[in-house]
Amino acid sequence: MNTLILSALSGVIMMFSSFLLKSKSAVRILAHLLLGAIIILNILELKSIHFVEFNTQSMMVFDRFALLFMLVANLCTFAFFLLSAKDIEKVGVHYGDYFALIFFILSGVVLVASFKSLLILFLGIEIISIPLYILTGSDKSSLKSNEASLKYFLMGAFSTGLMLMGIALVYGATGTFNTAAMQWGDKVPVLIIVGMMMLLFSMSFKVSAAPFHFWTPDVYDGAPTVFTSFMATIVKAAGFIAFMRLFEDAFGSIRNEWKLLVAIIVAATLFIGNISAVFQQSVKRMLAYSSIAQAGFMMLAVYSLNSEAKEGLILYTAAYSIATIGIFAVLIRMKDYTIEGFNGFAKSHPVVAVSLVIFLLSLAGIPLTAGFLSKFYMLRATIEAGSLWLAIFAVLMAAISAYYYFKLIQAMYFKDGSDTQSIEISGGFTYSLLGLSFFTILLGIFPNLLTHWLYF
Amino acid sequence: MIVLLLILIPLVGGLISFLLKEEKTVRSWAFLVSLAALAVSIWGLTTEASSGELQFSAPWMGALGSSFSIGLDGMSHLLCLLTTVSYSIIFIATWKSHYTKAHNFFGLMLLTAAGLIGVFIATDALLFYFFWELALIPVYFLCSGWGGEKRIPVTFKFFIYTFSASVLMLVGLLYLYFQTPDRSFSIESFYALNLSNDKQSWLFWLLFIAFAVKMPVFPFHTWQPDTYEQSPTATTMVLSGIMVKMGIFGVIRWVLPVLPVASYMWGDVVMGLAVAGIIYASVIAMQQNDLKRLIAYSSIAHIGLMAAAIFAEHKTSMQGVLIQMFNHGINILGLWIVVELIERQFGTRKLSELGGIAQKAPALSILLVIIALANISLPLTNSFVGEFLMFNGIFNSEATKYNILFAALAGLSIILGAVYTLNMIQKIIFGNTSNLTEKTYDINLNEKIALGLLVLIIFSFGVFPQPLLNLTEGFADGILKKVDVAKLITQL
To answer: Which residues in chain B have their CB less than 8 angstroms from residue A365's CB?
Structure first.
């Protein structure tokens, strides 16, 4: 709760910071400080130290799972700030506003991670979505960015409508918004089933699961690359936490009704995401499709809904966000976004290339990286839930994903570029990248560093 | 403790190599590291198994039911010995080769060694999988970075092929994990499993395909000749000498004792594939004009024989496989060294352009003939012992009804092997000198040492194979006791 208050407050502070602070670096430092304070509050909350107590009327519950996810999201945002805060500057003139919007999104993340009431879920999703529409269109002079924003807004509004309809139907059948208090007799009412379907579809839209993924590549491609990085990682992960909470609390008891449907969505997402990513020439689009493919893996957690899945989802969001933020941070600085643009990159920037390789290996799921263990947890949860075939399908798709991640490694290391791009890299940037790759490997060897927070 | 050193030495040594700048220093350093690893594995031979020095276990990822446990037994010890011996000889033989970015090259080579040794000594399934993949990554970089002209697509095919197969193995291992009563990845829990026949049957393929690709068994071999051809020779030596043994090792350690019923049921199919592969590869080897491809196909034939011998599930054949794993590594290493020499001197690997080397380079010719004869497994050479045991085992096998047919067809491999190997010798060594071979000079000291050492090993284990037999006997017995063919036959 304290985290929620501070992040909302930070948003307001950042909004007005542009009036008071003239230099851009001051704004940036303020954003870092505020996020640092949020993280400290979050850790204190995990240690059960609260400064302000609120009665949320059991509309929200701050259990360890919620708090830990918030911590992961905040830490990843911090990594995002460290690597890319300067690049936000280049998007447009309203530097402070962008930070404000990001802080608002973070408070939305808190809502969706901890909701117990469908109303809070709706609020959270909206608080996340609306700033994203703005961020997507923030590059005002670019037609692509405008198009992406409009597209995202229209599609998003439609799916929100679907979600509201679903909530209304579920409310009609049960008379409550509280996900834990919903009850029905032995026979599941049709209203519940229809409402659940609508919620399932709208949530699938938010996490860009197939066949609701069509907006993703265009929006990710059109949005300014810095914000794509944020959207594809922290926001997407938040969607999954909401998804999992919703289906565990409200519809866990009727799992048989939706199990098959979710399995089909998982399989379709994995298939479409991976196959399309193979054919991409632009790294940015490739990462957009790869984010769909990874969403398929994360969705296995929704499918299996056991304690392994919870651990796995936390680990997965951390591993995936770190790796993707790292790759995007380098990509932002490149002029040429095609895979050929990375030719000979290892020669001109050996250290950055090594950390990129670690991130790519993590995304491909090679042992010793966090990406492997998170995929491993997901497979474990899936087999535990009794679906071996889905697990086999998922690993085969993971093998395909190695193809396009390694294509980038090939370009960097084994191909010579005629005009190798050299990018501006400060010492701090390199160290932050190395730090992130270090974490990727650390989590790949000792996942307990993260998962034990769920229990102690 | 010894076993821990065995993995730490190449791992740490490899990481340090990345930091060294001078090519000379890093080459000597890598050589020293390989010698140290060799010394440790020989030290292990003198240690009693009961002293506990050969086992090591530390808690790791306890929540997942996995631990960092490694151990040396007969088979893993033999393979660690092969790895360390091969590495020392590879470094001697390629002493004069120059590499761009040598520190990366040697660092990756040593990391590969750490991965390979890890695969051989892991006694925990998850740890095994970790090393299994980790051995692949540095090889990917080695082949793509320092290989021939078509290296990038070829290595990519190799990588995707083996990676796809090994992720299936991961699912298989995970499923087995859920079957253990104590939810553990340890090898003891896996060995204690008693699964129904149906489950074993499809689990067998999940696991076996990963190993079959690595060996490679026909029809999973298509990555192999291209990869051998395009990789830098030092890496090809590692690939063909040691890495293919990962597949055979995997079957003996993780398939046969864990899924005995399925191994028995599918034994005929696998043996059939293996025998088909032997003949197929031998026939193709006869047609080859490129030395590297010839040796690559000959390797497929030899590995096929080993695969067939495993599924004969007979004590002599099992021991034959174990010994032959070592001997095949030694022989093929010798062949690659010669190929490297020829390629460096003449700039070609085409048999049609070579000839008449015997007059100009007698030492090379003699050593090559000996190694080639070992490749045909002539008596007095090391591989005769292994192949004889394998044929004997296949012939007497109770696990298959077609034992005589398989033994006869596999026996063709010796004749076919003689055809292509002698043909190769004839075209390289004898005949008239061509324009290219006019200016042949004999081999350098380091190559003489490397080949000499190999010939020494070939002869000593050819004449006196007892140490190898002693090392592997207990292990072969243990495995077959777990499989218990006699009981399976009465049951099914």
So the answer is: 167
Residue A418: per-residue pLDDT:
65
pLDDT tier at B439, thresholds 50, 70, 90: low
Band (pLDDT 50/70/90 cuts) for residue B468 is confident
Which helix (H) or strand (E) segment is B55 a member of? strand B55-59
Best of A308, A366, A450 to substitute, by most chain B Cβ atoms within 10 angstroms, is: A366
Q: Looking at the partner chain, which of A414, A446, A451 has a beta carbon nearest the beta carbon of B145? A: A414
Q: Is B266 strand, coil or helix?
A: coil
Angle formed by the axes of helices A190-206 and A255-278, to 10°?
A: 20
Q: How confident is the model at residue A32 (pLDDT cuts 50, 70, 90)?
A: very high
- What is the token pair recorded at B132? 């299994």
The mean per-residue pLDDT over the stretch B444-470 comes to 86
Mean pLDDT value across residues B59-88: 87
Q: Would you call B63 an interface residue with chain A, using a CB distance cutoff of 8 Å? A: yes
| B31 Cβ under 8 Å from any chain A Cβ | no
Contact of B167 with chain A, judged by CB distance below 8 Å, is answered with yes
- The Cα–Cα gap between B350 and B347 comes to 9
User: Which of B130, B145, B171 lies nearest to residue A368, judging by beta carbons?
Assistant: B130
Interface contact A339, partner B, CB < 8 A: no
Residues of B in contact with A406 (CB under 8 A): 140, 156, 159-160
Confirm whether B257 is domain-assigned: no
Q: Can you spell out the DSSP letters for A204-237? A: HHHTT-TTS-THHHHHHHHS-HHHHHHIIIIIHH
Chain B residue with minimal CA distance to A446? B61
Query: Chain B within 8 Å of A449 (Cβ-Cβ)?
Result: no
Q: How far is the C-alpha of B161 from the C-alpha of A404, rounded, in Å?
A: 14
B436 alpha-carbon distance from chain centroid = 33
Q: Answer yes or no: is B243 within a domain.
A: no
Could you tell me if A170 and A241 are in contact, meaning their C-beta atoms sit under 8 angstroms apart?
Answer: no
pLDDT at A421: 65
More confident residue, B47 or A323: A323
CB distance B167–A395 less than 8 Å? Answer: yes
Distance, CA of B148 to CA of B230 (rounded, Å): 5
Residue A36: its pLDDT value, please?
Answer: 94
Best residue in A403, A414, A442 to probe B by mutation, most B CBs within 10 Å? Answer: A414
ipTM (interface pTM): 0.90
Contact with chain B for residue A383, Cβ under 8 A:
yes
Pick from A383, A399, A447: which is nearest to B167 by CB? Answer: A399
pLDDT tens column, B102-147: 888 999 999 999 999 999 999 999 999 999 988 899 999 998 888 8
pLDDT tens for each residue of A158-177: 999 999 999 999 999 888 89
Residue B70 DSSP class: E
**What 3-state class would DSSP assign to A178?**
strand
pLDDT per residue over B343-373, tens digit each? 887 778 888 887 777 777 788 888 888 888 8
Phi, psi of B219, rounded to the nearest 5 degrees: -100, 30
Tell me whether residue B48 is in a domain. no
Whether residue B474 has pLDDT greater than 80: yes
Q: How many independent structural domains does chain B possess?
A: 1
Is A413 close to B160, i.e. CB distance below 8 A? Answer: no
Is B179 in contact with B259 (CB distance < 8 Å)?
A: no
Q: Cβ contacts (< 8 Å) between B199 and chain A: which residues?
A: none
Stated pTM of the model: 0.93
